[in-house]
Model the fold of this input.
Amino acid sequence: MQINKFFITALCLGGSVAIPQAQAEQNKPLKVCAAENEMPYSNKAGEGFENKLAELVGKALNRKVEYLSWTDPRYYIRDTLDKGLCDVAMGVDKGDPRVLTTQPYYRSGYVFISREADKLNLENWDSEALRKAQRIAFVPDTPPEVMMRAIGRYNDMFNYSQELVGFKSRRNQYIKYETSKLVSEISSGHAEIAALWGPSAARYVKASTTPLVMTMIPDNNVRTDGQKVDFHFSTSMGVRKNDPTLLAQLNKVIEDNRNEITELLEEEGIPLVAEPDAP
Done:
């Protein structure tokens, strides 16, 4: 009934009493779907920047945060959020068709990473440094792979790319690349350039004892057939499709706490870009 939008009925001392829905929700934990070991995003120890963001959201909603851990990024929406085991997924793409997505809480992009001392001119994929580099670190099946093919360097790096695999599952050949390892390839001098997702690399670039430079890759790239390749993406929170109430609450949290969220991301070192103008 319509009244259920505003009140729930609870039994108390043998009678019934109306309690505001928002107050009742405050007594329920906010269950967050979180990676067990996907740093720098999240881990079981709560050390990731998405853990910090989740705690900020929980505080704003006056709800204790509890985590439901997942290990395989391919199926975690289906196996956790969709089954009602958790309420919100941090760090999903804006408009992800599997969920309802909030307004974005940040927008970032892929970056070139190099040693500061090398003073490489890395303005875009036409940069001469990319054609001369002996080793370029990147993660397969990402926009940088598309452009590595477009500039004719993919085959040159194929064997090196296989050396960078950090983990391979026994089932379904799930392959994982550790961003920390790829950044260390640059700081150690084993590779000259890396092309990585900025939010995943920022923490390790910031922590490197060898001064490194992150250069935002422009979002105007086209592959060999002339089709545009996106390099900047907006990040949102996701909820189940039948939970518009929580979606509205999260949107308000993002709007009311945007400065604090931005400060948290900047402290992480994440390079941010402005949202494109709405059509």
